[in-house]
Amino acid sequence: MAERKVGARRRETGYDRWMKQEGLPIVEGHGVTDVRSLDLGPWKRLGGSGAFVQLFGMDGLTGMYVAEIPPGGALNPEKHMYEEVIYVVSGSGAVEIGDEKQKPVTLEWQEGSLFAPPLNVRHKLFNGSGSEPARFVAMTNAPLVVDLFYNPDFILNCPFPFTDRFDGRADYYKVGERILRNDGYGMLWETNAIPDLRTTHVDVQGDAKGKGVLTTGFELSGNVLAGHMAEWPVGIYHKAHYHGGGAVFIMLRSRGYTLLWPREAGMHPYKSGQAHKVVRIDWREGSVLSPASSWFHQHFNTGAEPARLVAIRYGSYRHDVAFHAAQSREGTLVDIKLGGTMIEYEDEDPEIRRQFKEELKKNRVEYRMEEASPQSKALVGS
What we know:
Layout: H1 14-22, E1 26-29, E2 31-32, E3 41-42, E4 49-55, E5 63-69, E6 84-90, E7 93-97, E8 105-109, E9 114-115, E10 123-127, E11 134-140, H2 142-149, H3 152-157, E12 178-180, E13 187-190, E14 193-194, E15 214-219, E16 226-232, E17 248-253, E18 255-262, E19 279-284, E20 288-289, E21 295-301, E22 307-313, H4 322-327, H5 350-363, H6 374-379
Parallel strand pairs: 1-4, 13-15
Antiparallel strand pairs: 2-20, 3-4, 4-5, 5-11, 6-9, 6-11, 7-8, 7-10, 9-14, 12-13, 15-16, 16-22, 17-20, 17-22, 18-19, 18-21
């Protein structure tokens, strides 16, 4: 995928030093093509193997690592003062949470499962197969926590129990209920685990993000890190928009590409001679990417099936944080002409749709943007 573009060298942070101390490979860039095939290194502290992923758009607000559990094996138990959301990309197994004084709570997981160990609670992951490794990708807010305290012993060994987040109840990982948010932003799923993100139902939200785009937000384990699933049809793409940094996208289904460009390149980067600032990331199942703060980004489905992604980000409905609220105050679902950050189809750079039509033609996939906006009708046959 595209190389990370580096400006002035920043000073080393506490999180930078911690990653070096952990001794794992560190992968940088705007995205990773497939975390299922990423090269890993031995992880002494946790056991198994792993690699850190430092995407340009994480902006020091979120972190990521990929880890693998050997066949028939388990990782060492750990707890930590940062939040963690785990998505399983291959294999099956179980996670056991709770300290030695409690009866452990167990969740069985499989490929496609998403779950979050509660903050600062001991947890241990087991591989359920005796013949195949299990691999997962974990999103965290460790960069913020480690930069603030820069003391691994405190972060990994703090005794404080967050009983407001986990009280030892046996049904902690029971799949929760979906509710209608009272602010008009669709459905909210309050659950600490999702059995399979690839097949679970995604709710209708209207066409704010694009024609036929389905969206369900979710909250996990009382975290400030929240997320949402999005699915959109064949031959359709999302509207471009920007927001604050730290969001990470994992692609779950189909194939396509995402365009990223800095806000200073404007709404029409091709038309204004700023095409060299546009970054294209081709993706498929297993790809991860992260748009930098205030970079426009736009997802395009060029596959023959509906595309699906999951985003892990700040912006919890229950536990929002002020810096995220400040980054998002304009409104990511509001027309940029009205003070928001979203570009409506009819206002986008014409080259964006031309490229999409060309990609669909190569893949022999039906073009369906005529259904999405008046502009698409005007472009038919161009």
